[in-house]
Design goal:
By secondary structure, the protein is an alpha+beta fold. The protein has helices at 174-183, 201-209, 236-249, 264-273, 286-300, 346-361, 435-450, 453-458, and strands at residues 2-8, 18-24, 31-32, 37-42, 47-51, 56-61, 68-70, 74-81, 108-109, 121-122, 254-262, 306-309, 314-317, 323-329, 332-334, 337-338, 375-378, 398-402, 406-412, 415-429. A hairpin with a 4-residue loop joins strand 4 (37-42) and strand 5 (47-51).
Length: 459
């Protein structure tokens, strides 16, 4: 005897209300086990892998890759053995039994890095009314699970379970929808040759291979015309970034100061560090010494590492530094943070920055990686620009922009010379930091990068 169960999108933490389905690791007909990773979702901060709460056979994928679903929405249907007993490996938590039709409250999976494939289930998922969800427009491809009537007897496994039927306007599996999207085809304009009129991969590939026009001028010939405009949904990391930047820009009064410096000695020190055995396996770049200089300047000017608590009408002065390193990724701007960076040695700081940056570019940053920052560095120089006016990360007081390093004429000891030059830009919250303190911070960072030995004298 089998039952049809659905797994609802869980709240994986921090008040999640929706998430995008990034990648399915299973397909209809696949045999799965409890805790097997079945899907990757993108929240407002990171990509998270979800484990299966059931062991059985995948009946249907209810939300396609690239679509956004609200918390509590069924995303996958699974045929499981209907023994009437708890599933193997699931503790008796005293939670409600499945409701009529085999649809039960969704079950959480803990956040699991991709390197650790063994996930652990944690209790039951979001209860009705546990989160506030925004209204969503109905999607043409959104699937809705129809619970079986109460009187319907349990299904039997013979020889393979029939996928649960979903009410959809276009019958096509998620991989087929993804292929059609990549090829710029409208599935509603295609006729499916699969069972029940389902559109198959061959149907999509055949449509893509057709010429844009025919010599007979047949009315049925499909002509693909690119639109003059394209609309890109705002979601995931980009949506979170936009909201944070708007909130910061219109809450904290920004002031930005600029300083052009001779960074020749820092470039020489970077080259020397690369040769030291302590830095084996560490990606040493000028950014590492910029980070160290900012940490030292922060210790000398503690208010730059504070935050403004509007509700309590207090300034929160932190005696630790979680250093944020802004990183541009395919999914948008993210800011992984080096926790307790103030207490790290230079090699450890370099390793931490490298590992966080690599994880961010690969989309593997966890919510913990992307939260808790106290002051941030953004390396705009990698984009080939000299400087900019960075926006303060919400909850912080300052952000330092590090511009490109380039050869430029410079007056050294009264003589004109060609030196390695870059521009620093420091934005700070003028409610907390006055011009004198802001100027002291950027000036001290500049002095340490001009003469790296000052880092030893001031640390």
């Amino acid at each position: 005897m089998t039952e049809l169960k659905s797994f609802k999108l869980p709240d994986v933490g921090e008040g999640l209300t929706e998430a995008e389905i990034v990648k399915w690791h299973v397909q209809p007909g696949d045999q799965i086990i409890i805790n097997q990773i079945i899907v990757e979702i993108e929240t407002a901060k990171a990509i998270v892998e979800l484990p299966s709460p059931y062991a059985g056979v995948v009946a249907d994928l209810l939300v396609a890759e690239g679509e956004t679903a609200d918390v509590g929405t069924p995303i996958i249907a699974v045929q499981v053995a209907g023994t009437g007993k708890p599933s193997p490996g699931k503790a008796d938590t005293g939670k409600p039994e499945p409701v009529e039709g085999g649809i039960e409250p969704g079950i959480h999976g803990v956040l699991v890095p991709k390197e650790e494939r063994q996930a652990v289930l944690v209790g039951y998922g979001v209860k009705l009314g546990a989160s506030t969800r925004r209204p969503r427009k109905p999607s043409a491809s959104a699937a809705v699970v129809t619970p079986e009537p109460a009187a319907t007897p349990a299904l039997t496994v013979a020889p393979a379970p029939e996928p649960a039927r979903s009410r959809v306007s276009v019958l096509a599996k998620p991989p087929v929808r993804k292929l059609a999207k990549e090829l710029g085809l409208d599935l509603t304009q295609l006729t499916g040759t699969g069972e029940g009129g389902k559109i198959t991969r061959d149907d999509v590939q055949a449509a893509a291979a057709r010429p844009a026009s025919t010599s007979t001028g047949s009315a049925s010939a499909q002509v693909t015309i690119l639109p003059r405009e394209e609309r890109i949904p705002i979601r995931g990391v980009r949506k979170h970034m936009a909201a944070a930047m708007v909130a910061s820009a219109f809450t904290a009064p920004h002031v930005t100061e600029f300083l052009q410096i001779d960074i020749t000695e820092t470039m020489a020190a970077t080259a020397r560090l690369k040769q030291l055995p302590e830095f084996d396996g560490v990606r040493v770049s000028p950014l590492l010494l910029v980070a160290k200089a900012l940490l030292i300047a922060t210790a000398r000017n503690p208010m730059i590492n504070s935050s403004w608590d509007e509700a309590a009408q207090e300034i929160v002065l932190r005696h630790y530094v979680n250093l944020g390193i802004a990183a541009a990724t395919d999914r948008g701007l993210v800011v992984p943070t080096v926790k307790d960076a103030h207490s790290m040695s230079l090699p450890d700081l370099g390793r931490a920055i490298g590992e966080l940056a690599e994880a961010a570019r690969a989309g593997k940053s966890t919510p913990a990686d992307l939260s808790g920052g106290t002051i941030t560095i953004t390396n705009v120089g990698v984009f080939g620009v000299d400087s900019g006016t960075p926006i303060i990360t919400p909850g912080e007081t300052a952000i330092l922009a590090f511009g490109q390093v380039k050869d430029a004429p410079w007056v050294l000891d009264g003589q004109l010379a060609v030196r390695k030059v870059c521009t620093l830009a420091l934005s700070f919250d003028h409610r907390i930091i006055d011009g004198a303190t802001g100027s002291a911070v950027i000036r001290e960072v500049g002095e340490m990068l001009t003469d790296p030995l000052r880092m030893l004298a001031w640390s």
